[in-house]
Amino acid sequence: MLHMFYQPVMASTIFCAVVLDNVDEVVRDRMVLKVGTIMDSPPPLHNTVDKLRSSSSSRLLQPRCSKERYRKSFLPAVHYQTV
User: Fold this and answer.
1) pLDDT confidence of 77, banded at 50, 70, 90?
2) pLDDT tens digit string along 24-65?
3) Does any domain span residue 65?
4) Residue 79's closest CA among 44, 54, 55?
5) What pLDDT was estimated at residue 18?
6) Domains identified in the chain, total number
7) What is the 3-state secondary structure (H, E, C) of 8-65?
8) Angle CA(53)–CA(45)–CA(39) in degrees, nearest 5?
């Protein structure tokens, strides 16, 4: 009776441990790939901010805005706070 209980429990424990190790490897591999793609791509506003740099120095210039709504948008507001 004990043998009938012991054998399936041990088999399932060993099988579960083998499967979980493989899942850990898959998760780690996917995480490494995701981090690699994040590190390779520039931030979304990188091109916009890079165009605002002065040609004679590396400081940021105030973006030109034709409407008050654009002056209160994210980029001019951040530029105003950092200057």
Assistant:
1) low
2) 788 888 888 888 887 777 777 777 777 777 888 777 777 777
3) yes
4) 54
5) 59
6) 1
7) HHHHHHHHHHHHHHHHHHHHHHHHHHHHHHHHHCCCCCHHHHHHCECCCCCCECCCCC
8) 110
Establish if 80 belongs to a structural domain: no
Query: What are the residues facing 53 on neighbouring strands?
Result: 60
pTM value is: 0.36
The answer as to whether 14 is a domain residue is yes
Of 66, 67, 65, 61, the C-alpha closest to 79 is 61
Does a structural domain hold residue 50?
A: yes
Instruction: Supply the range of the domain harboring residue 59.
Output: 1-72
